[in-house]
Amino acid sequence: MVAPFAIGPASKYIGLMTGTSLDGIDAALVRFDGNTPHCLAAHTEPYPSDLRDALLELSQPEADVATMMELDVRLGRLYATEVKRLLSRARISAEQVVAIGSHGQTIRHVPASKYPSTLQIGDPNIVAQLTGITTVTDFRRRDVAAGGQGAPLVPAFHDAVFRQPGENRVILNIGGIANVTVLPGEKELPVGGFDTGPGNILMDGWAARHLGLPQDQDGGWAASGRVDPQLLKEMLSDPFFRQPPPRSTGREHFNQRWLEARQPAGKLPPEDVAATLCELTATTIADAIRHQAGDTERIIVCGGGVHNATLMNRLEQLLAPCTVESSARHGVDPDRVEAIAFAWLARQTLTGGAGNLPSVTGAREPAVLGAIYPGTGKHQPG
Ligand SMILES: Nc1ncnc2c1ncn2[C@@H]1O[C@H](COP(=O)(O)OP(=O)(O)O)[C@@H](O)[C@H]1O
Ligand SMILES: [Mg+2]
User: 74 and 208: one domain?
Assistant: First the structure.
């Protein structure tokens, strides 16, 4: 295949990530030397609370199309603003950036339904028009079209950046949903990867409801409660946890309704539910790693969950004698890994390289992912 764009050996990209946590926009300006990313500037912009609420409402089954169209535009504008902010911080012009890789905000993810589909919004036309920069987006649906889950997509990037011959590694990303990438030390073995289940999503929802806060800061609230074995057992009986890979999930499955069905209101003290939800995340991650990658030596953690000390302590206990450490130990800020991955995926698209790993998503073949929205060639000021 002929690459549609001529790209120099060291070139700059911007990655934009908005994950299922609905916490905000992670943006990273990255220069790649081969596959080695150098993050030149990065920023996380929290979502305004009314936008977060509107997105949460949009994830309900009864959400309407007009609301979705409005939020598509609103997110497109926010992404463009975020890109401009990053450029001015880094003091570089739009012409120096080859492309933006924008994940978009997932609204639905149902790859296992009769009509397998996944949908991300945040109008890329607006991003390309307002920034002037070529914008690559809609990465997941091509993998779904090729018979895959459309997720996880970051394993190809993890493979390129974190694989170490002679050491069996797992990259663990704890976002709203938690996912693992299995990187065997032996180079002939295929990369594995799948969603383990809820990461922060249920803990965040519970903290919002009982503390009025977007998260259980550092896991302190969970640490003050006691794990309820009955509730834990009830939650672990969800068939998702027994499903073999390829598997992926999202907010349409793990949400407050899911929790309410297993924990009738007022039955347990809220802090005990918080402790049990934290334990659920830790247990399902540890079990998945033990069953799918029993010979793992090192677990490299990224995503917002790395800041939850209670969760990290439990993971260390459950996964001993494995080393469990932040990706910062490997030179990559844990809060930037996914944004950098989408910058890398945009480069894959523009250079005609595959972005999916069939061994991970279950796709029939590797595919060049994403749609390209050409830049204007001139940066609009402001
Ligand atoms: N200091 C912290 N204490 C507890 N949880 C945290 C902390 N910082 C971040 N988080 C969690 O990480 C989440 C954001 O993680 P992120 O990797 O951005 O997920 P996503 O990709 O789904 O947006 C927050 O919603 C929160 O649950
Ligand atoms: Mg996030």
Answer: no
